[in-house]
Design brief:
14 strands; alpha+beta; 6-stranded antiparallel beta sheet; flat; 25 helices
């Protein structure tokens, strides 16, 4: 279906009637007379306001036929539909003309048609003057004299063909800087995408993964120990000639080999983890143990043809110790993640770099669980040392065995297995995991967990540990044991005065007096001229009365007369105008955990406990009698310094070290002392383990070079390894004795 062309509106002034006889002219009077209208001479047209406009007008007509827009002729335009109307001049009703059928307008005019501009210019000037032009035409009408009619329309000239295309020329070379930038961009595109860091599993996931095979691993460890003992007995008897009376002695190496295979199946985790660590940046001690066991197994298979005593019992013993280390490491993860999943990780003990006189100290602060999990995954310095040592032992033992074997396969395997076992400490996998397991279990029971090795290392420096009133005596352990009143003051007044002074000073005992005041319904008083004395007391002015609140020694120093039977060591005295008015006896409950924590902090090296409690009852004599400790190990500064330390808050440089469930003093004391014991145990255990390995490695290399196979016996090598394992075992349990 053809799309109808939109009708174009032609203004009356520009409308020109084309005909076959263009020379015929009509006057306006003849047209009006033909249609029965009045003479227009009696109705002059209104003056055009555009003629009097001060704005200079311009011509918008383009005379150039090559650029002007094509204007269709009158015959190309569709006929307008005129509706019913009444002539405004004559008042005669004119019916509507019928709408003719629409015809298709040609897209291109015929060359024979006259120019519409020329036809419009030949219209009578009287018609142009009588019929006004539209507004948009009147505003651009020229005031100049009318010119002669323009030339008839002619066809536009043929389009000029474009110039021939030039041959392709390469763009100019870019500058040197642009070349470098383009080269850098290409290199970046070729680079492999950066791998995103692996997401750390949640504490719940880590706890379930670690606790998944604890029971089965414990059973396999017991089975491995039994077969190891049996293998050791067979090896010792066979190497010492105690089985010469047996008819089939050649079956003993095969039986030892079977026991070794059973131990390998029982401790398969060690071999799997060792093989996995061999292809990762952290080589690990398990990789060294796996290689030593594998070489010993190959040597045992090779020794079946020539019956001799192999080192399979020592390989079984190394497997047992390494599997024990894996079990302890899993337990450590369980204890730590069990606490992390039960608390949000917001509460933490932080290390403030400069707490007192440029000395770092421990404060209560905030932490995050994400930082705690990331700190637990960060590698520690002792582990990196073990990684380097294990890799060096494998390479050195391989080179030494190849050099001393002189091309003999039997000697190569025998020497290599002996050198590897001598360079692998039996408790190399326990030195790290056992102290962690013991300490994490004890901290879990007190609601705390270390921020990995970095948190433990941060607590090994010189520290100041503030001890507050709540640390020594929690609210449940501090109670009112009785009261007695003297003088002329009423009990309500004495209680109200004591509560007002203690509350204004922010004292720890204020809640006890406030509770008594609520019970009695006493009124509250305003306090002025508050003053804290260095002699364990507080003074203030309430109205016209001078009130003193303090200990027995404070009242004696202030000259207050003490009646008979009022000398109580653990009591608060209230005096009004230098007259004793009330005695309030207190009961301080002592817990075992607080006593143990104070004893640990007092005996720890590089730790300075400072008493920041504002209770004037807490003195050196009081600490000695209550907690059975040496007060010389603690610092009791002046009340002003106590208040200053008690108001300390962590700064921007504070580093979280311990995640705590709640701020208990037992958790703080064990965290500080336990971290120091952990670092000591791991560091000295690592030193002793590597020292024993280096010495055993050197001894076996020398003996293999000398060909002293008799000295490199199973008994001698076993005794060497067991003797060096004893100090490592004692050091690994160091965290149990704090």
């Amino acid at each position: 279906m053809k799309k109808k062309k939109k009708k174009q509106f032609v203004p009356p002034a520009d409308l020109a009637f084309s005909s076959q006889e263009p020379e015929q002219d009509f006057a306006l009077e003849d047209i009006m007379r033909e249609f029965g209208g009045e003479d227009l001479s009696s109705h002059p047209p209104a003056a055009d306001p555009a003629l009097f406009s001060p704005i200079p007008r311009h011509h918008t007509r383009d005379e150039d036929p090559t650029t002007q827009r094509y204007q269709p002729s009158v015959e190309d335009l569709p006929q307008r539909h005129v509706p019913d109307r009444t002539d405004s001049l004559s008042g005669v009703f004119v019916p509507a003309e019928p709408l003719p059928d629409e015809e298709e307008v040609p897209l291109e005019p015929s060359p024979a048609e006259p120019d519409i501009l020329a036809t419009a210019s030949e219209v009578s000037p009287d018609l142009k003057q009588a019929v006004p032009a539209p507004a948009h035409k009147r505003s651009h009408r020229s005031t100049e004299k009318k010119t002669a009619p323009s030339k008839p329309w002619t066809a536009p000239p043929a389009p000029v063909s474009p110039p021939p295309a030039r041959p392709f020329a390469p763009p100019p070379p870019p500058p040197k800087r642009e070349k470098q930038e383009a080269k850098r961009e290409r290199k970046q595109e070729k680079k492999k995408p950066v791998k995103q860091p692996k997401t750390i599993p949640t504490p719940e996931v880590q706890y379930r993964q670690a606790a998944e095979g604890l029971k089965s691993r414990a059973m396999r460890l017991i089975l491995c120990i039994l077969f190891t003992l049996l293998n050791l007995v067979l090896g010792v008897f066979y190497s010492q000639g105690m089985m010469d009376s047996l008819a089939r002695q050649d079956l003993i190496p095969g039986l030892q080999l079977i026991l070794l295979v059973i131990c390998i199946l029982s401790a398969y985790e060690v071999l799997f983890d060792g093989l996995r660590h061999m292809f990762t940046p952290g080589f690990g001690f398990q990789a060294l143990a796996s290689v030593a066991v594998a070489v010993t197994l190959i040597d045992g298979i090779n020794a079946l043809s020539t019956p001799r005593c192999t080192y399979s019992p020592l390989a079984c013993l190394l497997l047992c110790c390494t599997l024990w280390g894996v079990q302890l490491r899993k337990k450590h993860i369980c204890y730590t993640m069990d606490l992390a999943r039960r608390c949000r990780g917001n509460n933490a003990l932080v290390k403030e770099p400069e707490l007192q006189q440029k000395t770092a100290g421990i404060l209560h602060g905030k932490g995050s669980q994400a930082e705690f999990l990331a700190a637990g995954r960060s590698p520690a310095a002792p582990q990196r040392i073990w990684d380097c040592y294990a890799f060096a032992v494998i390479l050195l033992s391989l080179g030494a065995a190849a050099f001393t074997a002189d091309g003999s396969r039997d000697l190569f395997l025998q020497y290599w297995s002996a050198i590897l076992l001598a360079g692998s400490p039996l408790l190399g996998g326990v030195i790290w995991s056992r102290p962690w397991s013991i300490l994490s279990r004890r901290l879990r029971d007190r609601g705390a967990a270390l921020y990995g090795w970095s948190g433990a290392k941060a607590l090994c420096d010189k520290l100041v540990v503030p001890i507050s009133d709540n640390d020594l005596f929690p609210k449940d352990n501090l109670k009112l044991n009785g009261m007695k009143f003297f003088g002329g003051g009423t009990p309500d007044r004495v209680v109200a005065y004591g509560a007002a002074v203690l509350s204004a000073a922010g004292h720890t005992l204020a809640p006890i007096f406030d509770e008594q005041m609520k019970i009695r319904g006493a009124r509250r008083y305003a306090v002025t001229q508050l003053h804290r004395y260095d002699t364990d007391g507080i003074g203030a002015q309430i109205g016209d009365d001078a009130v003193l609140v303090g200990s027995l020694s404070f009242m004696g120093s202030m000259g207050v007369e003490m009646p008979a039977g009022t000398r109580v060591s653990q009591a608060v005295y209230v005096a009004i105008d230098s007259t004793l008015c009330g005695v309030f006896a207190l009961h301080y409950g002592v817990t075992r955990s607080t006593t143990e924590g104070l004893a640990c902090l007092g005996s720890a090296k590089k730790v300075t406990p400072i008493i920041t409690a504002d209770d004037f009852m807490i003195t050196e004599k009081f600490l000695r009698s209550k907690f059975r400790i040496n007060p010389a190990q603690f610092k009791l500064p002046s009340p002003a310094l106590r208040m200053e330390l008690a108001k300390k808050v962590p700064g921007s440089r504070a580093k979280p070290c311990v995640m705590v469930q709640d701020f208990r003093f037992a958790a703080t004391a064990l965290s500080v002392t336990g971290a120091k014991a952990l670092c000591t145990s791991v560091r000295w255990g690592t030193v002793i383990g590597i020292l024993s390995g280096v010495m055993g490695l050197g001894i076996m290399i020398i003996l293999s070079y000398l060909g002293a196979a008799d000295i490199m016996s199973l008994v001698n090598l076993g005794l060497y390894l067991i003797l060096w394992a004893i100090p490592s075992l004692l050091l690994s349990g160091w965290t149990k004795n704090i």
